[in-house]
Amino acid sequence: MSDEAVGAAGPIAAVRHDASLLGEQDVYLFNEGSHLRLQERLGAHLGVVDGVAGAHFAVWAPNAASVAVMGDWNGWSKSAQQLRVRGESGVWEGFLPGVVRGAAYKYHVVSRHGGYAADKADPFAVYAEVAPRTGSRVWTLDYEWGDAEWLARRARCNAVSAPMSVYEVHVGSWRRDPRDPSRMLTYRELAPLLAEHVARLGFTHVELLPVMEHPYYPSWGYQTTGYFAASSRWGTPQDLMFLIDSLHQAGIGVILDWVPSHFPTDEHGLGYFDGTHLYEHGDPRQGFHPDWQSFIFNYGRNEVRSFLLSSARFWIEQYHADGLRVDAVASMLYLDYSRKSGEWIPNRNGGRENLDAIDFLRRMNVELYGAFPDVQTTAEESTAWPLVSRPTYVGGLGFGFKWDMGWMHDTLAYMSLDPMQRKFDHGKLTFRGMYAFSEHFVLPLSHDEVVHGKGSLLRKMPGGTVPGGTVPGDHWQRYANLRLLLGWMFGQPGKKLLFMGAELATWNEWYQEVGLDWDLLALPAHAGVERWVADLNALYLREPALHELDCDPAGFAWIDCSDSENSTLAFLRRGRDAGEVLLFACNFTPIQRHAYRIGVPRAGFWAEVLNGDAADYGGSGVGNLGGVRSEDVACHGHAQSIAVELPPLAVVVLAPERRPQR
Prior knowledge:
- The protein has 662 residues and is an alpha/beta fold.
- The chain has 3 domains: 117 residues, Immunoglobulin-like (Sandwich); 311 residues, Alpha-Beta Barrel (TIM Barrel), CATH 3.20.20.80; 105 residues, Immunoglobulin-like (Sandwich).
- Helix content is 22%, strand content 24%.
- It contains 13 helices and 32 strands.
- The strands form 9 sheets. It has an 8-stranded parallel beta barrel with strand order 11-14-17-20-21-22-23-24, surrounded by 4 helices. It has a 6-stranded antiparallel sheet with strand order 25-26-27-32-29-30.
- Helix 1 crosses helix 6, helix 3 packs parallel to helix 4 and helix 6 packs parallel to helix 8.
- The N and C termini lie far apart (76 Å).
- The N terminus is likely disordered.
């Protein structure tokens, strides 16, 4: 190439090939699948060479015949500034003088195979153009964090024995600009509003649906193209850091949704990157997902493992994330996932397990927990795969937690039934006792359950028509059922997750193009549900019996799980201290149960500490006037028992008085 090229933007500086950020050790670790900070060597990085400012560019394209950097400084020329391949590494690199922070660019990749050529976004870019534009931007990640106090106590807040109540949020639709509802708020605008709301309601963590760059907004981020780039739809990388920092300073942890299971086929993305199946598996029976029409990573390729491992670590290290929720793990584990006979290839042992994906997940968890023992990884895994949340040294996948999808499906199916029919499906509530402690579970009432015609949680509940219906409806039952559902969830062992809007008792299912219906809080029934969520969180946080042994069978005991005729259930939650015990009594019918007898493990006065039918929540006010005293009447295997008023469609929580001080 000549010393100077001329393009649409005028004279273009020559690319220097004698300056590199990539050392021989980097190349070795990258090719070995062990590089954990690959984004520091590949991608675009501002620097100075011989007193001249510019940017280093490096991209992996081993099957390319040529790679050029095209950007707004060179008129998007596809040939003016060519990179040079680094030996046998497959990495093309060069230093481009004059490139500044904020410059937009892509790589023009010409393949050695079949004449393929495409303009590709940088796989390691940390910032991108605002959609629908698809270029990358040269950027830096400098930010002055103020969350040292949070990080110092993060281990306690993320412990398996700690209360973890997660508020799941989609950034683009949690709240819109009240003056212009079509405008999404930025990360920075969202920060104080979200922190105040979450803290006021008592949630301990926020989980953000993927904020990594994605071209198709209705994918909610689950079709990721930028595995190191915070989506520019809502601001700069520093704006996202400000949001996370603000939540941390409010004492709230942040979990990021991360998607290593598949990626979209958009031409500017990772797919067919250098004219070959570079990031995705080459055989469509292993490399293409039939459900999502997307590519599947080749987990057996070392360079791809380095890419994904670096991405996972990046979000925790650079953005101070307190954990990753890994999407669609089941689709990674099984070679025949969503495939018919003949549409998949058995592994080397003849089985259906994806051995490369399993190895990758184990390696990911080992690396993350080794470097950051105070964070948590959570698997969205919908099958009965064993030991998902158990250490790798005992044969597990190494996750900290697993979503309990079975609990979610069974519970929502039960709650959608007419209360008079529930007695025939009593087992949907009690079956979980068979496996509740086989994993470290999170109980999710997530975004997936309130979209695409499934209806909001309130709309799922029986009890009359929705607003605007032609038949008068008994709406109190809907609200009561929703409060009962939430009370049941908080009483069950396991961490909690609630998608935004449930606390508002929204009638409309979630739609990413509009904000939540905040005006509903002006109505008493909806304000009552929000107050109920806040009080449930408060109880969960302050009572060790509700979180210390969330993942230990010693923390739970049925009192009576067999009264299907009355559709009632009673159980105990216990803490490590023998004095920490709570009794939950649940009535899943609209019929008030008078003097309903329940066995209790100790004599004395049992105070009513929470009642889902209280008038403050929109209930009818049936209760126990502060509590009940036990009697010498044997019941449910206990020498003592209490006779309580069980309100209709409600959960009542009682605690023995004069519990020993901790």
